[in-house]
Amino acid sequence: MSVTMKAALWTGPETIEYTQIKQPIPRPGEALVKVAYAGICGTDIMIYLGKHMRAKAPLVMSHEFAGTVTQAESGPFPVGTPVVINPLITCGTCYACRNGLSHVCSTLKLVGIDRDGGFAEYAVVPLHTLRPLPTSLPLVQAALIEPLAVGVHAVRASELKVGDLTAVLGAGPVGIMTAQVARLAGARIVFVSERSPKRLAIARELGFEVIDTTTQDVVKTIMDATDGTGLPVVFETAGVQATITEAAKLARPGGQILQVGMPKTPPIVDVTALLFREIKMTPIRVYREEDFSQAIAIAAAGKVDLIKPVTHILPLDRLGEAMEIAHQASDACKILIAPGA
What we know:
By secondary structure, this protein is of the alpha/beta class. It contains 11 helices and 17 strands. Strands 3, 4, 5, 8, 9, 16 and 17 form a 7-stranded mixed sheet that branches. The longest helix has 12 residues, at 145-156.
């Protein structure tokens, strides 16, 4: 008799079905993980809306999750090992993979997009995606390691120096992670711009220089604070036209823009303005392996706050509601789903 489990399936645009499905059985080279917490990401919202070009229904979404190994026929992960998932699945043979750039693999796939992910009681994942965790790190915090790794990658790819002023445009989960890592890397002042009251409150509680874009002009505020010079490094994490345009105005001559946010439609970038001031634009896609390892170490050492960004923890049968809250974004930052709740 097959064993079943609870799962929240994406079955089509704006449709989540809470149901019982067969519990997956790991094959050689795979492990069965009991999911403790799984996060909702902007990518999940795109899938939910039916706008993701690779995701195919029915699908168990979520590539941000942590849990415990319950079965692994081979490999160095005993039953009971707490783990977080590095969801990247690479080909290993393309130019990028052969030259240390596997995070931009020509056929990059992710757990939770190209195969079932964490919005279920259990998930089967390739052994190579498992990253063991210290038992001292609560799994509810470990569920934020994946977006933290994005922030780590962005800051490590930047030219940020100790004592610099910098800005993070957008205070969503990745923006909050990036701001915290920038401060950890030595930024003296981190400006964070946002329009959501909830996200503004979180950024303020974390001690950042908050700019409320509903009442303040981001460019004027930062240019006034820098005597009209601008910033050496700007992190754009919202992926929308307004902040992309602001980033170009905020970078000082010779400065750098880290494009962390993924635009949903092709943005307009004034290349001439960047050219005249020799501003560098560095695109950021997910993370390298060393970034993910650093994110685990930073989380385990308690160097960033992985509690305040979490505004909701909801049971699996409320995933549909959670997706709507995440889509509106006005009253939420990171939303976690707890399949065992």
